[in-house]
Design a protein that fits this description.
The protein is 48% helix and 18% strand. It is of the alpha/beta class. Bound molecules: nicotinamide-adenine-dinucleotide.
Length: 381
């Protein structure tokens, strides 16, 4: 089983491997077979990934004498709904699953969260394997065991912690991923450097272009470092009581922006996180925790790879700092209505704080929104 690197997420009996490399999908059967209690798997995917990559997985399973059936949900966040979840569970149950049945999530974060949640609750819990096919899911959502669906009251409000038995991250499937999705995943990679590894962020400043062009070595190295960091943090704090919260760098602002955009395609999650990370560093500088030069460096790097770093591309909307703060208060990560931010003392040195004065947040947002409107107005013919 050559050509890949392995990381272990250390969670005692529930420990599992993350294997990262080129062409893993085509060799999936040999990786999966040792984990099966019966030679049968049920694959959950979405309509786009089915058309692009399902056949490769099916061939690999066949080569390892593993029988399989596939279920495709419509591509997109809409499939993380109660209705889609109910249909998927009924479809899977109608195939006659038992406690030894293995599910495979083949797709991005939507499929991973949906299939993982089905695995968590079907027959009170069955095994599943993640084969993430977006950069975001390879570095973030497939690792750590958070699964779930959305509610009318907000995203990811219904879910469970349920760890996969294995994660297979094949860098070659990223070749079919639209550039905008690749960049959204890159934001989560940059986040890892920014929150806890300044040397990795330095490396990214020099190598991001290679990675985004699909260079397999650069991709493997970056995915590995991001997963390693997430795995370490999750092993130390599986249920997000402490350190795991650092992974939310950029997310307090980011979630508010996403909520205000109605979770539409106007702003992808990773794009919201990119803007959120810039704002988190700017807030840190404003409060005297880090140097303004650090915040500039974050903004420059994200802008250089063509991620959004402020409100400029979103000026068709009427932004209101107070409405954004309202969204933050409703976020499930707010503690009793108190806003929680991940701030930084420097690049690679993040910490959490629930003591940020709201008027400071409002001032920062008001300034950035005003600047963006000014800039857009001067660009108008
Ligand atoms: P996604 O699953 O919707 O994938 C994005 C799009 O890319 C979809 O249209 C999909 O069909 C397509 N796609 C997937 N792989 C492809 C490929 N190789 N080639 C071409 N197209 C491909 O979105 P995502 O960005 O992967 O994940 C976002 C979801 O992940 C959100 O629902 C978010 O809440 C969740 N998430 C979960 C966690 C967690 O810890 N569980 C962490 C972060 C995000």
């Amino acid at each position: 089983m050559g050509g890949h690197e392995t990381l272990v997420v250390g969670l005692g009996e529930r420990s599992y491997d993350i294997r990262i490399g080129e062409g893993l999908l085509g060799r999936a059967g040999e990786h999966i077979a040792p984990l099966l209690q019966s030679p049968r798997v049920l694959i959950v995917t979405d309509s786009s990934v089915r058309d692009l990559h399902l056949a490769t997985l099916q061939r690999a399973l066949k080569a390892a004498d593993i029988s399989h059936q596939s279920f495709a949900v419509p591509a997109g966040e809409g499939s993380k709904s109660f209705a889609a979840f109910a249909k998927l569970c009924e479809d899977l149950l109608s195939e006659g699953i038992d406690r030894r049945t293995m599910l495979i999530a083949l797709g991005g974060g939507v499929v991973g969260d949906l299939c993982g949640f089905a695995a968590a609750v079907l027959l009170r819990g069955i095994d599943f394997i993640q084969i993430p096919t977006t950069l975001l899911s390879q570095v973030d959502s497939s690792v750590g065991g958070k699964t779930g669906i959305n509610s009318a009251h907000g995203k990811n409000l219904i879910g469970a912690f349920h760890q996969p038995r294995l994660v297979l991250a094949d860098t070659s499937v990223l070749a079919t991923l639209p550039k905008r999705q690749l960049l959204a995943g890159y934001a989560e990679i940059a986040k890892c450097g920014l929150l806890g590894d300044a040397a990795f962020f330095n490396w990214l400043e020099g190598h991001a272009h290679l990675l985004l062009e699909g260079d397999p070595d650069a991709l493997r190295k970056a995915i590995r470092r991001a997963c390693e960091m997430k795995a370490e943090i999750v092993a130390a704090d599986e249920r997000e009581a402490g350190r795991r919260q650092l992974l939310n760098l950029g997310h307090t602002f980011g979630h508010a922006l996403e909520a205000e955009c109605g979770y539409s395609d106007d702003l992808l999650h990773g794009e919201a996180v990119a803007i959120g990370m810039v704002l988190a560093f700017e807030l840190s500088a404003q409060l005297g925790y880090c140097r303004p030069e650090d915040a500039d460096r974050v903004r420059r790097h994200l802008a250089a790879v063509d991620l959004p770093t402020g409100f400029e591309r979103l000026c068709a909307r009427a932004w209101d700092p107070n409405r954004l703060i309202e969204h933050m208060r409703r976020d499930k990560k707010a503690r009793g209505g108190q806003l929680v931010f991940v701030l930084a003392q420097a690049i690679g040195k993040a910490f959490t704080s629930d003591r940020v004065p709201e008027d400071e947040v409002e001032r920062l947002l008001a300034e950035r929104i005003a600047e963006a409107y000014e800039e857009t107005a001067t660009l108008m013919p």
